[in-house]
Amino acid sequence: AALRLGIGAPVALAAAPQCNDDALANTVSSTTGAARDYLSAHPDANQAVTAAENQPRPAAAADLRSYFNGHPQEYVELRGILAPIGNAQQQCSVTLLPPDLASAYNEFMAG
Fold first, then answer.
1. Do 52 and 66 contact (CB within 8 A), yes or no?
2. Residues 88 and 94: beta-carbon distance below 8 Å
3. Cβ burial 37-60 (10 Å sphere, 16+ → b, else e)
4. Distance between CA 92 and CA 90 in Å, rounded?
5. Which of 11, 67, 87, 89 is surrounded by the fewest CB atoms within 10 Å?
6. Torsion over CA: 47, 48, 51, 53 (sign)
7. CB of 82 within 8 A of CB of 108?
8. Comparing C-alpha atoms, which of 50, 26, 54, 52 is closest to residue 39?
9. DSSP 54
10. What percent helix, strand, coil does the chain show, rounded to 5?
């Protein structure tokens, strides 16, 4: 939506967060789909993430941190792709991911 204040350009109004179940499910679905697409286009990052899925948590965290420290642009890009999940969780005061994924997500997003 836009609002005109006197003479000049319209001012955009921030959209209210969509906190209904359908909107939240769509956020998770579109975000994870975008992340899968990104990883498909970045085979080395995909390999690192796939390998981490089969490792004990501490080893997976260390290996992913090592990979993304060596590839900071990929980290920034993937973090940006995943951000809508965290934004929705914060704005709607909900947890959208199961505990194991939520923990991994939070650690990844924290850097």
1. no
2. yes
3. ebbeebeebeebbeebeeeeeeeb
4. 6
5. 11
6. negative
7. yes
8. 50
9. T
10. 70, 5, 25
Q: Is the pLDDT of residue 2 over 60?
A: no
pLDDT for 3: 44
Structure tokens, 8 = 């000049």
pLDDT digits over 71-109, tens only? Answer: 999 999 999 999 999 999 999 999 998 887 888 888 888
Residue 2 φ then ψ, to 5°: -130, 150
Q: What is the DSSP letter of 98?
A: -
- In this prediction, residue 111 carries a pLDDT of 80
The SS3 of residue 3 is strand
d(CA 67, CA 78): 13
The per-residue pLDDT for range 31-71, each reduced to its tens digit, is 999 999 999 999 999 999 999 988 998 999 999 999 999 99
Q: Which residue has the tokens 């809508």?
A: 84
Q: What is the pLDDT of residue 33?
A: 94
Q: Name the residue with tokens 């921030």.
A: 14
